[in-house]
Design brief:
Elements lengths: L9 H11 L13 H12 L1 H11 L6 H24 L10 H15 L6 H19 L2 H9 L11 H22 L2 H13 L11 H4 L4 H8 L1
Helix pairs in contact: 1-3, 2-4, 4-5, 5-6, 7-8, 8-11
Length: 224
């Protein structure tokens, strides 16, 4: 059994800190990924220092095989933690990031699944992601949001035929948006704005033909 001292004893914490320069972390259900961070800290400290702490505290010593297992656990869970931090962000977090994040996570888990000891964990994670997010991966709304994200555009699509289909879907979407923007509501708003302006129009110098020369459709055709 692997035993690491995380009890809130000031004396024991001082002993650990003297040996490692750090303290071990205690997982809590109130924080996402806290178990990962607790194991990561043990791996970061290293086997020699962990064993030294265990001896000082009178605990049984960790074996090299135990540390190897924990290291594998960290390697598997690290992509999960990165993905969760991206998606749970309070700022700079967009629906257009969701599909590439899921796809990137799946690919990284497939790589680390070569570790036999972690096969049950990686299989469970991959099955859970497929079951939970397959609808999202096929969602037209999410795909359009991803294509409109300047970091991704069409780059998340691997198949050329699928890329062309999605480009056409995006083109249809922006054309619909253009029609909505150019509808009666937009005209009414523009008229209301003109009525509220001063007699001397500060913007009379604007070239109206140049203003409308580049449409959203042109942007899609040119840059995608």
């Amino acid at each position: 059994m692997i035993r690491i001292q995380v009890h809130p004893s000031a004396r024991d914490n001082d002993t650990v800190e003297e040996i490692t320069g750090k303290t071990f972390l205690k997982p809590t259900c109130a924080r996402w990924c806290s178990e990962y961070y607790a194991v990561e800290r043990v791996v970061e400290v290293g086997l020699d220092k962990v064993v030294e702490c265990q001896k000082a505290l009178g605990h049984s010593e960790m074996a090299a095989a135990d540390m190897k297992f924990l290291t594998s656990f960290v390697n598997v869970m690290r992509p999960m933690v990165v993905a969760m931090k991206l998606i749970e962000g309070e700022s700079h977090c967009y629906i257009g990031q969701l599909i590439p994040t899921i796809m990137g996570l799946q690919r990284q888990l497939e790589v680390v699944s070569q570790d036999v000891a972690m096969k049950p964990l990686t299989s469970a994670l991959l099955n859970g992601i497929r079951n939970r997010f397959q609808v999202t991966l096929n969602s037209e709304e999410c795909r359009i949001a991803t294509m409109l994200h300047p970091k991704f555009k069409l780059a998340f699509l691997q198949d050329e035929q699928e890329r062309m289909q999605c480009k056409q879907m995006l083109l249809t979407y922006v054309q619909n948006v253009q029609r909505e923007v150019a509808g009666p509501t937009a005209s009414t708003s523009a008229s209301a704005l003109n009525e509220s302006e001063d007699d001397e129009d500060l913007y009379s110098f604007l070239n109206k033909s140049a203003e409308s020369s580049s449409s959203l459709s042109d942007e899609v055709i040119t840059h995608y």
